[in-house]
Amino acid sequence: MPQQSFSPLTIGPHVVQPPVVLAPMAGITNAPFRTLCREFSGGKGLFVSEMITTRALVERNEKTMQLIHFDETEKPRSIQLYGVDPATVGKAVRMIAEEDLADHIDLNFGCPVPKVTRKGGGSALPYKRNLLRAILREAVSGAGDLPVTMKMRKGIDDDHITYLDAGRIAVEEGVTAIALHGRTAAQHYGGTADWSAIARLKEHVPEIPVLGNGDIWSADDAVRMMRETGCDGVVVGRGCLGRPWLFGDLVSSFESSGGPEGVQQPAAPSLREVAEVMVRHATLLGEWIGDEARGVIDFRKHVAWYLKGFAVGSEMRKRLAITSSLAELRAGLDELDLDQSWPVGADGPRGRTSGNNRVVLPDGWLKDPYDCAGVSEEAELDTSGG
Predict the structure, then answer these.
(1) What is the pTM of this model?
(2) 253 lies in the same domain as 325
């Protein structure tokens, strides 16, 4: 089979090659994690901040202002915004543009968690077509020369599919690119992502790039998604949890023209190499937070993801997940059989896998897809990152 080359992804003035994007994940894709992913990729790709709420940004919430800090080597600087009020979204976008806080703005219409959807935000919002249009119009208008993209899901559930209408609205309002997670909000992260929906969206909005998201656990998955769907790039989320080196694998695959023959993938890491990355990750978190103990505590949620598949006893896993200092973390890791090679079964799903959940929505949300009533000021969350 001949090798297939993939074109660079163009987002406004920014050329992303290979066409690989780190998905925004609350509490995960902070500056330390983005640093790790960028190191493994050699700085290639696009790495998006965790979700920033527009109200918190406009009010200059202290935590939010820390979350929008970018390392001077991060280019382009990419922020994802969450908001449900067009005026507040517009203020936040203008603030970013006028104060030079980022080079690219992504809008979140894909989050399925109840605290977001119950107020009409995230993956619930595209059902209200006029509200979606108003938000996109304010964002694009306020952004000036900054490109605005959006990330969304197929819809609320199988009876309320919205992605094709939302895609057409996005094109009409000047959105630069769209990322589609091939699941509904009701699926959360369960089941299998519907890649055929990504292909349909690409056919529906050929005017702008379409990126695919969902069930990319390896570089091979990314290449296969692009071949099968014709999408212009991939967005990697849960597949890189505990695996920031996945971005090195992705770069290798795409720079080898994406063909199955002759692709020289980096060798899978041993447990010793994984342990080194774990300590570095925890160290970066401590430096970013300004407190080693708090950095190690924040790192605890990553332990199980890094150690998936390795022969590490349950008691040691628990011990490593309650460490409070770098010395304690290093000491625990040093007790492991660090010569273990990458285990069979370590690839594949990680993170949340729940599915078939009822989507929590505001009262009467589904009565009229065009009526914007029912979206209150309370829907604008006042904190970011979760």
Answers:
(1) 0.92
(2) no
Residue 135 sits in which domain range? 11-266
- Catalytic residue list: 111
Joined together, the tokens standing for residue 282 give 């925890």
One domain for residues 209 and 296: no
Residue 345 lies in a domain: no
188 assigned binding-site residue: no
State whether 258 and 275 are in the same domain: no
Strands 148-153 and 155-157: unpaired
* pLDDT tens column, 137-172: 999 999 999 999 999 999 999 999 999 999 999 999
Angstrom distances, CA of residue 180 to CA of 25, 129, 148, 233, 367:
15, 17, 15, 11, 25
In this structure, which amino acid lies at residue 236?
V
Residues of the chain with pLDDT below 70 are 1-4, 257-265, 348-356, 373-386
CA distance 9 to 129: 28
- Considering the domain architecture, whether residues 147 and 242 belong to the same structural domain is answered as yes
What pLDDT, in 10s, does the model give residues 51-71? 999 999 999 999 999 999 898
User: Any binding-site annotation on 237?
Assistant: yes
Co-location of 93 and 225 in the same domain: yes
For helices 219-229 and 246-255, what crossing angle results, to 10°?
Answer: 50
Last residue of a domain, one of 295, 315, 334: 334
Does 160 appear as a known binding residue? no
